[in-house]
Amino acid sequence: MKSAPDLALPVAPLPAVMLEPLVRAALLEDLGRAGDLTTDAIVPNDAQARTRLVARQEGVLAGLDLARLAFQLMDAGIEFRPVLADGARLRPGSEIAVISGPARGMLTAERTALNFLGHLSGVATATASIADAIRPHGARVTCTRKTLPGLRAVQKYAVRVGGGSNHRHGLDDAVLIKDNHVAVAGGVRQAVQRARAGIGHMVKIELEVDTLEQLDQALEIGVDVVLLDNMDLPTLREAVRRVGGRAVTEASGRITPESAPEVAATGVDLIAVGWLTHSARVLDIGLDS
Question: Where is the Quinolinate phosphoribosyl transferase C-terminal domain (predicted)?
Answer without folding.
Answer: 123-288
